[in-house]
Each structure stands twice: as C-alpha cells, then as structure tokens.
Give the backbone structure.
Amino acid sequence: MAIAGVAGTLLRYWLGGAVQRATGTVFPWGTFTVNMAGCLLFGVVWSASDGRLAISGETRTVILVGFMGAFTTFSSFIFETNQLMRDSEWALALGNIALQNITGIICLMLGLALGRLL
C-alpha cells in the first residue's frame, strides 16, 4: 500500500507540474488533469476488476486506495479554488468547481464503460 502511495504521489507531482508549466496560466490545469485522469483510471480499474480482468480484492484496494488516493488531490483542488477566490478571480473559482465536478463524473462514467470492455 505504501509503495503504491509513493508511486501515486510522484506521478501526481510530475504530471500536475508538467501540465501547469505547459499551460502557463493561473487556472489550476495541473490539478484538474490529475483529478480527471484519476477519475477515469478509477472507473477503469473498478469496472475491469469486476469483469474480465483478474484482479484480487486486495490488489484493487492497493490500486484504488494506495495509488489513486495519493495520485488525486481534493485538498489541492480546494486550496487552489480558495486562492482564486482570495485573488477575486470569482469566475475562475466557480469555473474550477463546476469543471472539476462535472468532468470528474463524466470521466468516472467513461472509465467504468472502458473497464467493462477489458
């Protein structure tokens, strides 16, 4: 579990930073990308492990709790939204809330569907 958590943390740090640097904006695209990838991958792993993919319950828990729990980041999402509000970037703050929640649900649903295809 700890190794999966370390891997998730390192990937989050690398991917989130790379995306944020590439966009060069104040909007937290790095966190958004990590959270949406996490929703998609969570759906794929959950659905695939209930279907054709032979993943034990313990392995699924390690992936979803250890890796995905460290990879996605609700606290960063909340902090960055607060920073946008503090800076009076109200439209960006509300957009971040709406975009991450709506797109997160869509990504999870897509992941569940993709996982059923495996």
About this structure: Residues 2-117 form one domain.
